[in-house]
Amino acid sequence: MRALAAAAIGLAPVLLFVLLVALVELPPEGTTSPRPLLTADPGPKK
User: Fold this and answer.
1) Angle at CA 15, nearest 5°, toward 13 and 21?
2) 3-state per-residue secondary structure call for 14-36
3) Nearest to residue 20, comparing CAs of 28, 12, 30?
4) How far apart are CA 27 and CA 39, in angstroms?
5) How far apart are the C-alpha atoms of 37 and 44, rounded to whole Å?
6) Closest to 37 measured CA to CA, from 28, 20, 21
7) pLDDT tens, residue by residue, 13-31
8) Which residues in 17-39 are b (16+ Cβ under 10 Å) and which e?
9) Chain centroid to CA 31: how far?
């Protein structure tokens, strides 16, 4: 039981850091493209 409590205490700061990084969402540096990224293959051009 002590090992479980120690693991929970040790992982708590790591979990909080990951959640903080996920919530902050820093903007990328430099210029970005105005066109959205494609998530699927558009196929051959007509």
Assistant:
1) 100
2) HHHHHHHHHHHCCCCCCCCCCCC
3) 12
4) 20
5) 17
6) 28
7) 999 999 998 888 777 777 7
8) eeeeeeeeeeeeeeeeeeeeeee
9) 21
**Whole-number Å distance between alpha carbons of 7 and 2:** 9
Q: Which residue has the tokens 């970005």?
A: 32
Supply 7's token pair: 């693991």
What does residue 27 show for φ and ψ, rounded to 5 degrees?
-70, 150
Sign of CA dihedral 20, 21, 26, 29: positive
Which residue has 């494609």 as its token pair? Answer: 38
What pTM was computed for the model?
0.48
Stretch 32-41: mean pLDDT, rounded?
70
